[in-house]
Specification:
By secondary structure, the protein is α/β, with parallel strands linked by helices. It folds into 2 domains: 172 residues, Rossmann fold; 135 residues, 3-Layer(aba) Sandwich (Rossmann fold), CATH 3.40.50.2000. It contains 14 helices and 12 strands. The longest helix is centred in the N-terminal third of the chain and has 19 residues.
Length: 339
């Protein structure tokens, strides 16, 4: 059986890669997880119950802070992986696994679905063995990073794979004190630590929250940092601000509307059929352009344009087999065998 190293550097990566990890382990492969303790990454791993090793720390929003933290974590990841004889590596946007894989001779796949994080992609794509992206991103946008055969594209959206067998759990509403019978809005704050946003906060967010509260919506705000949580509670005690990671996918599926400044929840809500508005301030990526053309997401510039109403009946959604994605992500392994 093969030994696979999976590095998780953001909370979204836990839900994205979990089905692939479980398929590998079902196939008899040994999977080792490492995680950067950023946002709710380790909370989600603790909830999952899968063993992992925490490596590194968050370096803040500045380029210098990120560079220092990245250098430190690469060294720690190298020390961790050395001598473990991994056969393959897999990550979604990790800037640590590809360089360690190159030095230690570990073939690896890097995945992403937002093409404008240039600094990250120029490093990862150069050092990784395989680059796996959705086919909605035009080839000319990917050319600066990778070309076939190194570049491999998968059909659809990553959310259609990892949400394939997902059904929402209504207990998340009870845990938060939210009533299903009343209108529910879910808001995701901006990734203020993201380098491609320059560490900025979204000025539209407080106005959106005020509009929702004025309309009587039960408003759950999923913050990314303790600082954001404190600021939200000071803004209005009527906001529901969870202290730790919650089942965001169930919230997105059960909500009447979602407003998000981050990409993952926007796409999850779109795939699950929930009305969703984006207040993302970065350069628009091809996946969001595609969803906008299909009418599955809308971009909000004025809170007055927000439709605060009960969600319409959901239509059947696209469900894709995670095994199909795994075959593209980890090409050297097939079910139960190491070639």
């Amino acid at each position: 059986m093969g030994r696979v190293w999976v590095d998780l550097t953001n909370s979204a990566h836990v839900v994205v890669l979990r089905p692939l990890v479980e398929l590998l382990e079902t196939g008899g492969h040994q999977v080792t997880l490492t995680a950067r303790p950023l946002s709710h990454t380790t909370d989600l791993l603790d909830d999952w119950g899968h063993p992992y090793t925490a490596i590194g720390q968050h370096g803040g929003a500045s380029r210098l802070g990120k560079a220092l933290a990245a250098t430190s974590r690469v060294a720690q990841a190298f020390a961790f992986a050395r001598g473990k004889h991994f056969d393959y590596g897999l990550a979604h946007g990790s800037t640590d696994l590809p360089p360690v894989g190159r030095v230690l001779g570990i073939p690896n796949t890097t995945m992403f679905d937002y093409e404008w994080a240039r600094l990250q992609h120029e490093l990862n794509c150069r050092l990784a063995t395989r680059v796996l992206v959705p086919d909605t991103i035009p080839a000319e946008r990917l050319a600066p990073y990778a070309r076939p055969p190194k570049l491999v594209r998968y059909p659809g959206l990553k959310e259609e794979y990892y949400l394939s067998d997902f059904e929402p759990d209504e207990s998340v509403l009870h845990e938060l004190g939210v009533e299903r019978e009343r209108l529910v809005a879910v808001v995701r704050t901006a990734p203020s630590y993201a380098l491609y946003l320059g560490g900025s906060e979204n000025e539209l967010l407080p106005r959106v929250l005020r509009r929702l509260l004025d309309e009587g919506a039960q408003t759950v705000v999923l913050a990314r940092t303790d600082e954001q949580r404190r600021a939200l509670r000071e803004l209005d005690p009527g906001l529901v601000v969870p202290e730790r990671a919650v089942d965001g996918r169930s919230l997105a599926a059960l909500a009447d509307l979602v407003v998000s400044a981050g990409g993952t929840m926007i796409r999850e809500a779109a795939v699950l059929g929930t009305p969703v508005w984006s207040i993302f301030e970065g350069r628009l990526g091809a996946v969001d352009e595609h969803l906008e053309r299909e009418g599955r997401i809308r971009f909000l510039r004025d809170p007055a344009d927000l439709v605060v109403a009960r969600a319409p009946e959901r239509k059947p959604r696209m469900r894709r087999d995670p095994a199909d994605l795994l075959r593209l992500a980890v090409p050297f392994f097939s079910a139960g065998r190491r070639p």
